[in-house]
């Protein structure tokens, strides 16, 4: 296909106002296709799109003037190159996956993943390995790179032990596999129903977080010093700072605490958020001689990196890391896909099938 055969308009799920997805999103039949790739860009015909919590959180949180609505929703996609422009690395017909990120790129181009076409810098794409389906590939970039970049940030090494809070989150599922690849011992939390899921991914030890009471108390009391963690990776986005503020009890000397970022809107509004927020501000904002907290708080901020995209692609093509799919929804039923991810119970990615022939 050349750009002359690409239609001028497309179907797209567009965020038009602030609110939960059922209020924020409208299905447009005539959304413009940015047909002509500029320097270092290609045009991709999308096959599938993956949802991420950041998508619906920003819909609910950000006013129009910050979110720069309207724009197409979501970030992760897979598809086929429809116009390779002047690319040396991609040709028309190549099977690819990638993401539109950061938020500013989505906002300035008005594009997103739940649409039929996307014009995207080629640095944000890689070729899809043949052992990965388009549905699987649509859920890789954002969560996979978050896990990869978090483990890089703490420099997890062979023989070390990592505690992953939230082993069945999409980020946690990638983190378990990547930590095992690095030769680390992996201890994870999940609810009991997901024990088999995280063990299959490589978790060595499992803690059912629904059964042990406050996690920081459990870890502080039950872990003998010999099994202290070199890294705690908090993937859930807990707003309560307790896991961090007590972490010197279960972190090894020089151990590191890294988080995907405390998020008040994870659990919806409840009154406990106020004292939790005050304790969080204290834990992160006050000097350690006042709080007694010795561990440093690191936060991963996922970013695009050609090298990281290629590393992840290599692990996937070698079968060392597997993408995980929770559920697949038809394009017209994208709002039900949001209902699913917003339960916070998904194991693996929630995918919207854009190409009906898949
Ligand atoms: N900073 C960044 O750059 C960045 C990047 C990506 C994601 N994030 C954030 O990271 C978080 C995770 O994202 P995701 O896409 O991986 O989430 P997700 O896949 O939607 O998470 C769903 C999973 O969370 C588990 N879970 C929920 N509450 C839990 C708890 N208290 N303890 C342990 N597990 C729990 C659920 O398992 P159970 O049913 O067993 O509870 C379910 O399997 C989100 O808050 C997201 O916004 C940040």
TrEMBL record:
- InterPro entries per record: ADH-like_N, ER, GroES-like_sf, NAD(P)-bd_dom_sf, YIM1/Zinc_Alcohol_DH_Fams
Domain Enoyl reductase (ER): where? Answer: 22-352
GO terms for CC?
A: mitochondrion
**Pfam families, sorted:** ADH_N, ADH_zinc_N_2
Source domain of life is: Eukaryota
SUPFAM superfamilies hit by this protein: GroES-like, NAD(P)-binding Rossmann-fold domains
Q: Name one GO molecular function term.
A: oxidoreductase activity
What is the protein's name according to its record? Enoyl reductase (ER) domain-containing protein
Q: Which organism is it from?
A: Candolleomyces aberdarensis
Lineage of the organism: Eukaryota, Fungi, Dikarya, Basidiomycota, Agaricomycotina
